[in-house]
PKD-like family lipoprotein
Amino acid sequence: MKRIYISLIALVALLSSCAKDHSNYDYRPKENITVKGMETSYTVISEKDNLVINPEVSSTDASAQFEYLWGIYETNVQGAVPVLDTLAKTKNLNYAVKKPAKGWVLVYRVTNKNTKYSQYFTSSINIVTEFTRGWYVAKDDGAQADLDLFLTPTNIIPESKKENIYSAVNGAKLAGQAQLLSYYTGYKSDVTGVLGNTKTLVLSTSKDVSTIYINTLKKIRTLDNAFFETPATRGPCYAFLGSSAYYLINGGQVHAISNSSLNVGIFGGRFLRDANNSPYSLSKYFMANWLTNAYMYDETSSSFVALSQGYGTSLTSVTDDAGTAMPAANTNKKLIYMGIKNTTYLPAPAYRYALMGCAIFQDKNNPAVKTISEIYADEFRMKFTNTPINATEQAYNGTNFTVPYAQENILYFSVNGNQIWSRNLSNNFEKLEYTLPAGEEVTFIRHKAYSSEAPYTYNFIMIASQTGGNYKIRMFNKASGSITGGPMVTLEGTGIAKDVLYITPSVGEGTYTTQW
């Protein structure tokens, strides 16, 4: 394949053709070349599809004799001149797609050999792989973690499955029990040969973490080389996106990559608790998204802390907002669960975002006392509105809690291993939503929604269970916060499922809010 470095003049012409809805460039108004049968855009699967185009070509020059050139160049190139790769010099194109999954521009140059006049025609090419669309399931066998991928080529319903795809590609499973799945689009790596933004799936476990190039599923880094200095402690690990930063928690300690500065995809040293380097150990629960500070709970001091939008090297203590029902520091509580419910924009003079969340606490002096707390967090202040949980209420013995983000004010949880309940946080009404078959035990409950690309949109309550070394994930539609009908999607496989994430080429860092 011939590679041609595009000159400045030619590059301007090519880029303009994209910006102006694929207009043609006629430098000699007495002749016009016309191409029919070439679409303005194509989507193809790398290493699987052939891009076939059989255009009709004509000219106002009745005696025209044509020569042709097909080429392709990458869009969104940073710090380098785009390179036009020649695909063919024939009238028709039959190209076995080999390029990496990303955006490209297809160029068709038609030249009249009699007049030496050329016209350029372009199409946008969205190259994907089988790995860039489908349901990813993080699972383990009790000691080692892997991924299953359920392929969805035409809609949200899977048509086939690739089991243990992480170990199949990388030659080994990831040590530990699976934790969370996260997805980054601005993570830096050089997997394509040039340092740049890399669409990255992050699989974390109780003993390790792996950043994974979504186009190939090859691991980029693990705990051994994800830090400038490898930590002595190995897990538990989990990763999430904060404002201007990627955070990785390892053994209760925070590490970060600031997206507002140059980086190579390696996490920095552990954050200090304070100027005295006081000991700390963070709970696995957190409230975070890409808009504002992240909030976590230090189990050592029973205090809330904030991660300040990717800046600094230490945790920030949180103070009390007016009217709070409990202090943010030295709460003397065990945090059973915490999740983010919503984000609200504060207008002038604040010009920032505040988070709303939900937490469940158990008193350390009297473990029989449990509380549901609705949280308002603004900068480095928190306000708690508490509601006691009576021993007769279902939430008192609940597990696998979750709250939906930016939807109903509902808390979901499991009871007795196989019952799914909801609790309206506005009026404390509890409702039995679904009962799993006897013998199945819930391993997680999630709520996720995706609305960017029909027919792949969904808004599901997801219930994962395990029995006999096998998992089943049922996904339900909901109305007013309640499950409606039977499962719309069911995923089944071997192992114990711990998280699920739907990926498409258009999924970005703001699509989902990572939480337990």
